[in-house]
Amino acid sequence: MDTTFPQLLMKHAAERPAAPAMREKEFGIWQTLSWAELAQMVAHAACGLQAAGLQRGEHLAVIGANRPRLYACMLAAQALGAIPVPLYQDAVAAEFVFPLSNAEVRMCVVEDQEQVDKMIEVRAQYPALTHIWYDDPRGLRNYSEAGLQGLGDLLQRGQALAAQNPEFFARQVAQGRPDDVGAMFFTSGTTGNPKGVVHTHRSLLNRAKAGADFDRLTAAEDVLAYLPPAWIGQNIFSYAQWLACGYVVNCPESAATVSIDLKEIGPTYYFAPPRVFEGLLTSVMIRMEDAGRIKRSMFHRFMDVARRVGPAKMDGQRLGLLDRLLYGLGDLLVYGPLRNTLGFSRVRVAYTAGEAIGPDLFTFYRAIGINLKQLYGSTETAVFVCLQPDNAVRADTVGVPIEGVEIKVADNGEILVRSAGLLKGYYKNQKATDEVLTADGWYHTSDAGFLDASGQLKIIDRVKDVGRLAGGANDGAMFAPKYVENKLKFFPHIKEAVAYGDGRATVCVMLNIDFEAVGNWAERRNLPYAGYTDLAGKAEVYELMRECVQKVNADLAQDAMLAGSQVSRFLVLHKELDADDNELTRTNKVRRGFIAEKYAVLIDALYAGRDQQYIETQVKFEDGRTGSVSATLKILDARTFEPVRKAA
């Protein structure tokens, strides 16, 4: 698109001034902001930031949840030719030092007292941070930190300056060019320091429009913005596509009210990683287990109908009369009320990305009439590379290349992408840029996969993680850890899995239980427990985990290429893997290398054939304190299966 984000804002404000642009829930009441009101707020913010000294090409950090005034500040920075850098609000202070110093940030806009406290702490290591503006003033009345002000003060100052120079903002917006840098997003830093991914207005808007055209999005859509704005997935759906289409973005009151707000808004366009869909389904199944016998029986009977009929109906296939009648009755009694309970009664298109989603989970949502689809992309590709077309949705693929995308597969199985949505480069890191971008414009995704006969892309694993077993009966067999981990996480009782096996004779895994799901399972069996560590170590829980592992092994045995990746031994970790303990990234991706070092004693025990191992682990609490948790972990063997030989 030959335009910029602020220019799109002004276009909507001119053409549809009274139409709602954003809603924010405050004190339990939805407050609406029109396009004209938003444009005025952005103009005042831009004037205030300019007066504070924000320069063209400079970076402005934005830290917080989805809030209208934080969005306005991102637009204001872009209007001035500056570059917004959204950062994860759940990061601890130390994690901000590198991105802020790397981007040479002098000014930041934050949400509340929690983020202000982090920025004050950051100043001890990075004193160049001179200005901190906050949106929510609660708890900040008695702060006297230099350069600390409320956003209200910034907007008031900007309003006065705008009155003195009413043409300033319009002139600044007009100076913007599509190839100007529009935003910078830091990667999750799975293997080291995060990298700043530089995107232009053109690259972000090109992919936003391609995705919107693919699913025929209009200004009539409603979106709930509840994921971190620092994640490019949320940013594309609630910022780039919002301005490209002109639909309404709704900001929940807090993380605790998202499920309630979801039902109240009833979004038409929805995006979430698989863990959100898993959590919603787990809560449904827990509630059904606690329901009466008649209600439970009706639910399971009609869900059998839904699984048999629903996906075909969703794909536009013709159904027999009896199936149509049964599904219609199920929709009246079960599926419709269930969609309403989940907040999906109005969803026209729902997407999931970031991780593989289990086929059973995927089928469940499509079976009850929710058009859930998968997409493929990354921070570097501005998200939209492949999308699943309506009526051609499969659980084992991530869709077809959409308009403006070329894909090819390298000799080593790596997927290469070329499109107008690619990053301009990594900030201050030419070496890393040259490693991923070729001279003729191809981006190395680092993902291994292939295009199947129907033209849909299938992802196997990260190229660097695809290894080989060494020694034993499966010597030389392919090992794809992510593939194994995802299959294990498809079970609702398993929250996380970390698989090892490259260069070894067998595959072993460490598991995290889903505390809510397994806790409910235990309570229904009158199995007492005192917290996560106690529950994770129960013999009955270990047998439950063994059942899951062996089902995965039976499934892997069906695939001649990956049959050697069956799990031979496993243990259940005594604590949940946590981003605050550096075991996960802020986007909840496993840091496999770090975990291998931290839990080396457990990996050694798995491969040494021991049946138990003591471990003591340091943990970090939310308030910054540290402590330790210890346990003697059991290690169990799992049954493996002979590979199924396909008939010639």
UniProtKB/TrEMBL annotation:
Alphabetized Pfam families for the sequence: AMP-binding, AMP-binding_C_3
Domain of life, per lineage: Bacteria
Domain AMP-dependent synthetase/ligase: start-end pairs: 11-427
Keywords, alphabetical: ATP-binding, Nucleotide-binding
Coiled coil: none
One GO CC term on file: membrane
SUPFAM superfamilies: Acetyl-CoA synthetase-like
One term of GO molecular function: long-chain fatty acid-CoA ligase activity
InterPro entries: AMP-binding_CS, AMP-dep_synth/lig_dom, ANL_N_sf
Protein name: AMP-binding protein
Naturally occurring in which organism (per UniProt): Xenophilus arseniciresistens
